[in-house]
Write a structure and sequence with these properties.
There is one protein chain. With 187 residues, the chain is an all-beta fold. The protein is 0% helix and 42% strand. It is built from no helices and 19 strands. Strands 1-2-5-6 form a 4-stranded antiparallel beta sheet, with no helix packed on it. The chain is globular and about 40 Å long. It starts with 13 loop residues before the first strand and ends with a strand. InterPro entries: Kelch-typ_b-propeller, Kelch_1.
Length: 187
């Protein structure tokens, strides 16, 4: 089934479900960053407030109430950001939160037990095994044990008390794609 098209074309953006809506932010189109944020209500896309730090190859995650935009880059892996911003769909506004300790693009993120877990990513000459957690209640970042293998461009999901990092690339520029699946347990 075809859905209505987005109001703006974009690649390398981020999306997450907040309540009963899909929020999409960031990305690039034709070599330029896309600053708009769009919300899908099941029938139509609505353009809302621009993301404060436009970027692509960012991660997006939801805690059920808000959408969080994590990291990303300004069109090149040597232009990574540590920016973290929260979108409130009810108010239609963005809030800047404390930056990640490690700037990176191509990372994945998941929400688990009141924390946003940022996983892996890419820098100009290497991929990262770095895992960091943002505690939503305290507003602080802390390091977690690294992934056994660094990767970027992976899929990241939470099931129960485990964050999974699936696939990705072992070298910058998507070289050496992998079939690796890694898990970080939160028991």
């Amino acid at each position: 089934m075809d859905l209505p098209p987005l109001n703006e074309p974009r690649a390398a953006g981020a999306a997450a479900v907040v309540g009963d809506r899909i929020v999409v932010a960031g990305g690039q189109a034709n070599g330029a960053l896309v600053p708009t944020t769009e919300v899908f209500d099941g029938t139509k896309w609505t353009t809302v407030s621009d993301i404060p730090t436009p970027r692509e190859h960012l991660a997006g995650v939801s805690d059920g109430t808000y959408f969080y935009a994590i990291g990303g880059r300004d069109l090149a892996s040597d232009q990574n950001t540590a920016a973290v911003e929260r979108f409130d769909p009810a108010a239609g506004t963005w809030t800047t939160l404390p930056a990640m300790p490690t700037p990176r693009g191509g990372l994945g993120a998941a929400f688990i037990d009141g924390r946003i877990v940022a996983v892996g990513g890419e820098q100009p000459t290497r991929v990262l095994s770095t895992v960091e957690a943002y505690d939503v209640a305290s507003g602080t970042w802390s390091p977690l044990p690294p992934m056994p293998s660094g990767a970027h461009g992976m899929s990241v999901a939470t099931v129960g008390h485990t964050v999974y990092a699936i696939g990705g690339a072992l070298r910058p520029t998507h070289a050496e794609s992998t079939a690796t699946a890694q898990a970080l347990d939160f028991w």
